[in-house]
Amino acid sequence: MQIKVRRTGLVAQLLCILALALTTQPATAETLDWSGPVHWQSWEEGSKDAASHGKPMFLLVFGHWCPHCRELMPVFRDPEIAKLARNFVMVRQDTDERPPWLSRYGHIATYVPRIFFLYPDGALASDITSGNPQFPYYYQPSNVGALRTSMHKGAALHTGHKS
After folding, report:
1. Helix residue ranges per DSSP H, 24-162
2. In this structure, what DSSP letter does residue 76 have?
3. What is the CA radius of gyration of the chain?
4. Labelling 41: which of 54, 67, 76, 118 has CA 20 to 30 A away?
5. Which run of H or E residues covers position 7?
6. pLDDT at 104
7. To 5 degrees, how large is the angle CA 156–CA 157–CA 159?
């Protein structure tokens, strides 16, 4: 009888450990390092800044756990990309935080990373894409040219748009 009680206790402990392991978030050591020449803002700061200055927004939706996001991050240290970024209010958003405003753009796709070019009022410039029909807002780190092209197009978004 004592053996059965001990075995049951051990099974319960193992189940608790397993449940804890399955619900624990990844370590913060996996957090992406966004330091560099690009000035990133939150949605709240960026949307106010874009509206008050009439400047288009560059919205990057990423995940700290995402290997493609990790590969894309160094692209923003490229001097030409950093220079083009000055034409935008640069906003980045962790997809796992799931802010309510993100659902405005979330219906398009749920993959990360996603890069959206937005008018100063937050409206999507749906014609500025990566050129990939399956993943139109995914820019490959190995094809920086597509991102540069889109950034050149997006720099003109401050003109001629009415909400």
Report:
1. 43-53, 67-72, 79-85, 103-106, 144-154
2. G
3. 21
4. 67
5. helix 2-23
6. 84
7. 80
Domains of the chain with CATH codes: 30-154 (3.40.30.10)
Q: Centre a 10 Å sphere on the Cβ of residue 156 and count the other Cβ atoms it contains.
A: 13
CB 130 within 8 Å of CB 136: yes
DSSP letters for 14-62 = HHHHHHHHHHPPPPGGG-----SSS-EE-HHHHHHHHHHHT--EEEEEE
- pLDDT tens-digit series, residues 38-93: 999 999 999 999 999 999 999 999 999 999 999 999 999 999 999 999 999 999 99
Under a CB-based contact definition with an 8 Å cutoff, are residues 37 and 109 in contact? Answer: no
Contact yes or no for 63/95 (Cβ under 8 A): yes
Peptide bond into 120 cis (omega under 30): no
Instruction: Tell me the residue length of the chain.
Output: 163
Q: What is the pTM of this model?
A: 0.78
